[in-house]
DNA sequence: GCTTCTACTTCGCAAATGTCAAGAAATCAG
DNA sequence: CTGATTTCTTGACATTTGCGAAGTAGAAGC
């Protein structure tokens, strides 16, 4: 397992030379996480950020009635971490669990800080990365505000069809903010078209 | 009009000496915006960030059916800007409009970049600020996912009662993701308790 | 003061979604 | 392979929310 995918990912966000990128990803270390195991539990501080080489994870928390609410899916070749816990060293408010067996490259908060100080590009990368995450969250927020459940489903399946191969529908339902029975009905309607 | 409130705000996010703070806010300039005027229009790049000395603004966009969707309220002594447009110099996807007459201190993107380079604290402040905004957006997202309209209303009125003094209820309805008639019903039910 | 406009409420009905229970289908463990 | 568990679907019914229309109250303009 080499760091090619990681380097490609980093350079797509912030173009830079191969050498710079290599320097930037040097501190990342490999990890394996078995299916249903946790990368992070509520109350713990998220002290690493993981680039997913293979596998899928999801983040979730509970609502007032004790139902699981899926807040994010992390597919291969993206980063998985609780951004808030990681950057502010706060206890996490959610769980991050492996939906399938996973292999990741992870970077500790300390190593990231070291990179921030020694590599100006990394500082810029870090900032862009947060803005990017903010952007995605905002789109999802807007989608919740202005679209019906069916429209949200339609958007998700066309923008991220991979998710549907990787995770159970009930997680997707709670991610879309609807009951799993409602999702089932929406899929039925949707299939007719 | 002096910069005391601005300095206080900045130092609350990132503690620093009075001198540092003074240096940091030096480039901010005053502006007045009349009721119903626009601080930003869709399609324009948001090239300044505004600290609101007095007054209230809101951000909004339109959904597929042409209805206004309020995405944010900006109360006095906070920052108003389209974060995504500002940091990425992209065309804004929304409008920012003054709900009442406003006075602001604004900083241009160029001046912010200059501050980033010359004042390390400001870099750190910028990053923390984005993380903070992300945090707030995430809470709202969760609130949409796990709470009923009435719970969201209840939460808003207890966390930000000021908003209800400043902006029409119909804006609040679209901010909560419901029709104004539904908000009216919810308020009626809510008043009984 | 009068008119006009906007914000807000209320009503009746329709559409969307939730809840609960049952059963089918798929997956997992031994 | 087989039984147990989990996931998914379906149906009946309740609840929430949206929509259009009508009416009221208050603010703004003249």
Automatic annotation (TrEMBL), chains A, B:
The record's listing under SUPFAM superfamilies reads:
cAMP-binding domain-like
The protein's superkingdom reads Bacteria
User: Domain named Cyclic nucleotide-binding: which ranges?
Assistant: 12-113
Record protein name field: Crp/Fnr family transcriptional regulator
């Amino acid at each position: 397992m080499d760091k090619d995918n990681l380097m490609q990912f980093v350079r797509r966000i912030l173009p830079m030379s191969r050498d710079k990128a290599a320097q930037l990803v040097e501190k990342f270390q490999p990890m394996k996480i078995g299916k249903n195991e946790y990368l992070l539990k509520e109350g713990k501080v998220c002290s690493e950020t993981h680039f997913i080489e293979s596998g899928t994870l999801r983040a979730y928390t509970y609502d007032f009635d004790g139902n699981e609410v899926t807040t994010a899916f992390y597919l291969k070749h993206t980063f998985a971490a609780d951004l808030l816990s990681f950057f502010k060293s706060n206890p996490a408010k959610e769980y991050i669990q492996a939906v399938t067996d996973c292999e990741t490259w992870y970077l500790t908060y300390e190593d990231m800080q070291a990179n921030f100080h020694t590599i100006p590009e990394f500082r810029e990368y870090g900032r862009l990365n947060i803005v990017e995450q903010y952007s995605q969250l905002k789109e999802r927020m807007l989608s919740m505000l202005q679209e019906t459940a069916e429209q949200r489903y339609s958007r998700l399946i066309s923008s991220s069809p991979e998710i549907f191969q990787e995770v159970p529908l009930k997680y997707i339902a709670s991610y879309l903010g609807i009951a799993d029975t409602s999702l089932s009905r929406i899929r039925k309607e949707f299939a007719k078209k």
